[in-house]
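HUMAN: Now follow token order:
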Amino acid sequence: MNNVLKALMADSEEVRQKYIDRETLLYAVQRTITCMRTGVVLDVDKAVMVTTILGDKRGAWVLTGEAWDAMEEWTRAKAAEIGATLEVIDGRKL
């Protein structure tokens, strides 16, 4: 059963959101193919999609989990400094 159907049949909003996040990450990995930082081929189970939101502007990166781990602290600090919001979908947690 695909993630969209599982989301429609989910018993709770939390479970529904996990399936939607998984489908979103899968689409991003299929479109991007390689990590935007390291060039390593992405695996949806280990990939992380980071979306920055600043006003009406949005930007997204798809990275390996290791690449995100290496830059997470700096990225969160920079986002807070400029008043941006981060949305993170981590395939390792789905």
